[in-house]
Design a protein that fits this description.
heterodimer; A: DHBP synthase; 5-stranded mixed beta sheet; 20 helices; B: Serine Threonine Protein Phosphatase 5, Tetratricopeptide repeat; 4 domains; 5-stranded parallel beta sheet; 23 helices; 18 strands; 14% strand; binds fe (ii) ion
């Protein structure tokens, strides 16, 4: 049976294909439209996933949608009516998902609807390889639910307890994110990064936002929140409570802001820990599956894993709403046929393949020199390891694209983690991001323990652990001595593993700085042409795309000048008639 | 905002009542009423809402911005300085003016308008404002200062806002050269009221009713409000408005034979079948120069389509022109031009006679001077028709057109006779040739057929034979693999000042053979290059599997929709023939694999041909199916091959289509309007492996 999962119309649309219980393809729409967190129906991802699966639209048995539109409408209506508010609830159109799946994806077969948190939970449970597990989800809101817990077993996913909107850990964190002058629904990780610099001296004040958190429940004091999509998410009461004005966007970040970040991070961790311990109390399984947008918080993740009481733990590669597409498809497949994956998903590379041939044609036509290592994998890895060891920044785009927010060695920018100046360099080239945000390391799994205080695999970069003293990895070590580690297994990604190993042979450190291959404000590159464009624009030293190796000094200056100028002009997929395209 | 103790219960019950199409429309209506009530309340309390649509949009905008500029006081009076806070993308649509000094003792002329006013494809070599300044400098006995405030694709509310703001400019004259974007503004359905009017019109009188409602009930009042603003401005500040009535290149734009044009909106199945029979007859008669037969067929088509197709009017116009009746030809061409305007489908000519007449009437009734380009740009030999030499496409003016139009405006402003030059004297032969190359490129992008594109290229070579170097660059640019920015010819092309606007934007564009093949063919023909040079360099390698639908690679590709509904991940054919180009470095046998669906078809199959030779049929069916058709090497050729899917006439029910479009309007979405002949999800050519090749 072929089930296609779809998430759309809120944040980070995605598509996934599950065939007879196996995950065959998944990708996020933003990579195709080149608009970050694309929310439209995932028509490009759909085509791409079907192509990967080798199927046509007529082969699909069922489409699974990741949210119940009627329940969502119920919550939206309540927001609208309760507040007399108009903005901020979005389109109130419960027909939209079914209509757009039919009209815009061209699918008119059976459509199954899965509740939002069920989809989150399913994306963790069915990918975990566990026969049974306790389930925990936390995000901003999906339909009415913000946090849920339940059990996964041979009979499926069953959510037994749910915290209703607006009492939400995600919204609590986002509110402080908003207070700190960052963008909601995208900049939460900045707050997490900033937290390491501060002291949690607002913890007591922030704790007053929570009225009750006993027994898996959560009640927020709604006087402090303004839960509308437009404008600030907080009220003046929060300013009074904190005795600190909100930080205007782009204002300098001061100690008080760092302290507030540290406080909300600690509050989140404490609340999560409380929930997970409670969960372990009522469902004393060995296994925990955890998902939802809050599971992007890798600092909290490690604390939960260590202190939550569960022996084993699984967080999927896309714990956010994109992952809902995968969860919905897996859940429906299991419900309809009983089929489900039998092993854990440890490889996030579920997207389209990049072999570099498109880039080869472009380079060839423009007579740009490049080395083609087709059939000489070892030589390519050797050459790249040499370059990295010599301090070169390498854009690395090979094989299937990762599903989820992290680049894990298929669409990555790589650098030497031993070089303290590397962070500054990559920031200057591509990221142009706040000084306080650390870069992450990738390490061969078998030697992770030598460099990091990490006792489990972390294939999706969802753990933040201490860097061992003397590890000598300044470019990937955060101010508090932690790092957001990705462990790479030989059996999962032999090519990236081998690159790390070879780098280790040269330097003694089988670790690379691994950051996503994109420039600030853009989604991660998808194909070889995106990679080439990003490489040229950013002035990255070397590009490895498929089997090709290209050096920045060989790139025609006119490419750089042109892309620097033209980049800002238009949104590539936003126009659909010739006139608006040109003006 | 305290939630009820069981928040899900009541709201969910309500949601269940509203979770269908009618419910969605109900909620939308409720919100609209809520908004209107809030607006009225705010007005009552003396708030800003309601003064103008922009006030709500930019409540905090300081009043002394005029478009992309900020007012500055200088010793010679009010001047302008470009707003530094705008991004390059925002600035690029506005006239390229850094600073305007105070007018001193000069009379100030402000020119506003859209791309035509901006001098699209000519600027900065020349543009209407510069031509106007030159003429005024030549003939006037006092000093004039011309201010260029044109903005490409400015819509009606923005133009209104700009005109209101220009009241702070101490202007003496305000020249308005606009109109082509007004109809599309109405397509945006900014309020439920408008959508409801359109839905009512559609329900009442079908698609002609939709169009009438759009003009009479939505657009006309909005244009009226804009024109009233001109009068208010005249009364308040003394600025004299001058309206330029736009003209359209009636004979130089073809709705027939190009790619991806609308033929006709949904008709009843029997009428649609009859309409296409007549169309075939009219086209054949035109080719055979049987003018009367063309007229007969075209008139019958109009009777069937209610005047909502550009095809019969165009064919009729050609026939009447050939028969020597220029006045009747003009009427026919105008009917063709206006047919789709207001129908919410994609069509570039968007200044219908109704708008021209509204402007003329306004000028007459309020003693406002005007320059009617229908007169100014007329042909010398057949004054009923516009001179094609004055245009670069459907509405943008060539340097010849700019020269003539602005001479007339200068004459009207000074009360003198201004004799235009044969061409704009500041535009050199090379620059003229460049503008014509850009015109060819733009027309090709707009999907115009080779017969429209080719003359621009010939005019370019005529203007300056050296232009062939640039044409060769363009040909190479179009045949390179990958995105346009990777072509080393792009900088060469973008270096031409007037070309930058086009080629800067082309940069990220990926291959779209279907839209560019006409141009590539015309260029190859003109440069006398062998057919295979038009095939991508990389395709010289053994041909590999290729997807002919470029939905996934380009916004302008096969998935581009012909109406204003959201794009789909598959192609809906709204005309009976879907044409897909296939470039081959050499003849190749292979398999054509089509994934298709035909939900509204009768029992007949669709027919697939390659270069005119039938290769198989597609069985109609409501489900997607895959059909593989063998293609012999002898059917293919080097260079451009054309795969055609000929669909049977669909059995779409007109009343069903109208019902679903009424429902779409009720939820604020665009109506579909068009018939669907068939659907393609994928069309792949898979060459058979040839011995000796990998
Ligand atoms: Fe979620």
């Amino acid at each position: 049976m072929i089930v296609v999962g779809v998430s759309a119309f809120y944040h980070d649309s995605a598509c996934a294909v599950v065939v007879d219980g196996e995950v065959v393809a998944a990708s996020q729409e933003e990579r195709y439209t080149r608009r970050r967190f694309e929310r439209g129906v995932p028509m490009y991802a759909y085509r791409s996933c079907l192509e990967q699966a080798g199927i046509g639209p007529g082969d699909i048995d069922m489409v699974a949608y990741y949210e119940n539109p009627t329940k969502k409408l119920g919550r939206q209506l309540w927001m609208l009516l309760a507040d007399g508010g108009d903005r901020g609830v979005g389109e109130l159109d419960a027909m939209q998902p079914a209509r757009e799946i039919r009209d815009r994806l061209g699918y008119d077969g059976p459509l199954a609807v899965v509740d939002h948190h069920e989809a989150h939970a399913a994306s963790a449970f069915y990918c975990s390889g566990f026969d049974e597990a306790a389930l925990f989800t936390a995000d901003a809101v999906g339909e009415w639910t913000t946090t849920s817990c339940g059990v996964g077993s041979a009979s499926g996913v069953e959510l037994r307890q749910q915290v209703p909107f607006p009492h939400s850990l995600g919204l609590l964190y986002s509110t402080v994110t908003s207070y700190l002058g960052f963008s909601v629904n995208s900049d939460e990780y900045k707050v997490m990064g900033l937290a390491a610099y501060g002291r949690p001296r607002y913890l007591g004040a922030l704790a007053q936002l929570v009225l009750n958190s006993a027994d898996g429940d959560l009640r927020l004091d709604t006087r402090y929140f303004r839960l509308r999509a437009d404008g600030a998410m907080y009220t003046a009461a929060l300013t009074d409570l904190l005795g600190l004005p909100p930080r205007p966007v782009r204002a300098p970040i001061e100690a008080v802001h760092r302290d507030l970040a540290a406080s909300v991070q600690l509050l989140l961790e404490e609340l999560l820990l409380e929930k997970v311990r409670y969960l372990h109390g009522i469902y004393p399984s060995d296994n925990l599956c955890y998902s939802g947008g809050v599971a992007h918080n890798c600092v909290a993740n490690t604390k939960l894993r260590r202190g939550g009481g569960f022996r084993n733990w699984y967080v999927p590669p896309a714990p956010g709403d994109a992952g809902g597409a995968l969860g919905a498809a897996l859940l429906v497949q299991h419900r309809e046929t009983g089929a489900r994956p039998t092993t854990a998903l440890t490889d996030a590379r579920l997207g389209p393949f990049c072999d570099g041939r498109g880039a080869a044609r472009v380079l060839h036509a423009a007579a740009v020199p490049y080395e083609d290592f087709a059939g000489r994998e070892e030589a390519l890895l050797e050459a790249t390891a040499d370059l990295l060891a010599a301090g070169t920044v390498v854009g690395w785009c090979r094989g299937q694209m990762e599903f989820g927010p992290r680049a894990l060695g298929s669409r990555s920018i790589l650098g030497d983690p031993r070089d303290a100046g590397m962070r500054e360099r990559i920031n200057r080239l591509v990221k142009k991001r706040e000084e306080f945000r650390p870069f992450a390391p990738a390490v061969v799994a078998e030697r992770a323990g030598e460099f990091f205080d990490l006792e489990v695999p972390s294939p999706f970069m969802l753990e933040a652990v201490a860097v061992r003293p003397g590890a000598g990895l300044p470019a990937v070590t955060h101010v508090d001595g932690s790092a957001r580690v990705q462990t790479v297994e030989r059996g999962t990604d032999p090519r990236f593993h081998s690159l790390l190993e070879r780098f280790g042979r040269r330097t003694g450190v089988p670790v690379l700085l691994n950051t996503s291959f994109n420039v600030r404000g853009e989604p991660i590159v998808r194909d070889d042409v995106d990679a080439l464009s990003c490489f040229v624009r950013a002035g990255i030293d070397v590009l490895v795309v498929g089997d090709l190796l290209v050096r920045q000094e060989d790139v025609p200056g006119v490419w750089r000048e042109y892309l620097a100028r033209a980049g800002s002009y238009h949104d590539r997929l936003a126009h659909n008639d010739a006139y608006s395209f040109f003006v | 905002m305290e939630p009820p103790s069981d928040p899900s219960f009541l709201s969910d019950a309500l949601a269940r009542l509203l979770a269908d199409e009618r419910g969605t429309a109900t909620v939308r209506a409720l919100r609209e009423v809520q908004r209107a009530v809030a607006g009225a309340e705010q007005r009552r309390r003396g708030g800003a809402a309601g003064t103008a649509p922009d006030a709500a949009r930019h409540p905090a905008a300081p009043p002394l911005h005029v478009g992309a500029w900020r007012l500055v006081d200088t010793e010679h009076g009010r001047g302008l300085r470009r707003r530094a806070e705008l991004t390059p993308a925002e600035l690029s649509v506005w006239a390229d003016v850094d600073e305007v000094p105070g007018k001193g003792d000069a009379a100030r002329v402000v020119l506003v308008g859209e791309s035509t006013a901006r001098g699209y494809l000519l600027d900065p070599v020349t543009n209407p404002t510069r031509a106007l300044q030159r003429h005024l400098d030549t003939v006037a006995d006092r000093r004039f200062q011309c201010l260029d405030l044109a903005r490409t694709s400015i819509d009606l509310p923005d133009l209104h806002r700009l005109v209101r703001a220009s009241g702070h400019l101490d202007a003496d004259h305000l020249v308005v050269l606009a109109g082509n974007n007004w109809t599309t503004w109405a397509y945006e359905l900014s309020g439920l009221g408008d959508a409801t009017r359109l839905a009512d019109g559609l329900r009442r009188d079908g698609y002609p009713g939709l169009r009438r409602a759009l003009f009479d009930e939505v657009l006309n009042p909005r244009i009226g409000a804009f024109l009233d603003e001109l009068l208010r401005l005249r009364d308040r500040t003394g600025v004299q408005p001058l309206l330029v009535i736009p003209e359209f290149n009636l004979t130089g734009w073809s709705p027939v034979g190009g790619s991806r044009y609308v033929d006709v909106p949904t008709l009843r199945p029997d009428e649609l079948r009859r309409w296409y029979d007549l169309r075939a007859r009219a086209v054949a008669a035109l080719a055979a120069q049987r003018w009367t037969a063309v007229q007969g067929a075209a008139r019958e088509m109009v009777a069937l389509d209610g005047g909502l197709s550009p095809v019969p009017g165009y064919l009729l116009g050609r026939a009447l022109l050939a028969a020597g009746d220029a006045a009747a030809a003009r009427q026919a061409f105008e009917q063709s031009r206006d047919s789709l305007c207001g129908l919410m489908v994609k069509y570039l000519p968007r200044t219908p006679r109704m708008i021209q007449e509204q402007l003329v009437t306004f000028c007459r009734e309020h003693d406002v001077p005007s320059v009617d380009l229908r007169v100014t740009l007329a042909r010398a030999d057949q004054p009923e028709l516009p001179d094609e030499q004055c245009f670069l496409d459907y509405c943008h003016l060539s340097d010849v057109g700019v020269e003539r139009a602005m001479a007339e405006v200068a004459g009207r402003l000074t009360g003198r006779t201004v004799v235009p030059g044969a061409t704009d004297p500041t535009v050199g032969a090379w620059q003229r040739a460049v503008s014509l190359v850009l015109a060819a490129t733009y027309n090709a992008f707009c999907g115009q057929p080779a017969e429209t594109v080719r003359p621009y290229l010939h005019r370019a070579v005529e203007a300056d034979p050296d232009i062939v170097d640039l044409l060769a660059s363009l040909a190479r640019l179009l045949s390179r693999p990958g995105p346009m920015w990777s072509s080393l010819d792009l900088p060469r092309l973008a270096r031409e000042p007037s070309a930058a606007v086009m080629f800067e934007r082309l940069g990220e564009y990926r291959p779209d053979q279907s839209r560019l093949w006409f141009l590539r063919q015309c260029l190859a023909e003109l440069l006398a290059e062998p057919a295979e040079s038009a095939v991508e360099v990389a395709e010289a390698a053994p041909p590999s599997e290729v997807e002919l639908l470029d939905i996934a690679t380009t916004p302008l590709g096969g998935g581009a929709v012909l109406n204003y509904t959201d794009p789909r991940c598959y192609l809906q054919a709204n005309v009976p023939t879907t044409e897909l180009p296939l470039g081959l470095p050499r003849p190749a046998a292979g398999c054509l694999r089509l994934v298709h669906r035909c939900r509204e078809a009768g029992p007949e199959p669709a027919v697939v041909t390659v270069n005119g030779t039938p290769v198989g049929r597609l069985v109609a069916g409501r489900q997607w199916r895959t059909t593989e058709l063998a293609v012999g090497a002898d059917v293919t050729r080097v260079g451009l091959n054309t795969v055609r899917v000929g669909w049977p006439v669909p059995t779409t029910s007109l009343s069903d289509r109208i019902d679903s479009d009424v429902a779409a309007l009720a939820r604020g979405a665009a109506p579909y309007v068009l018939p669907v002949f068939g659907e393609l999800y994928s069309v792949r050519f898979v060459p058979y492996a040839v011995e000796g090749e990998a």
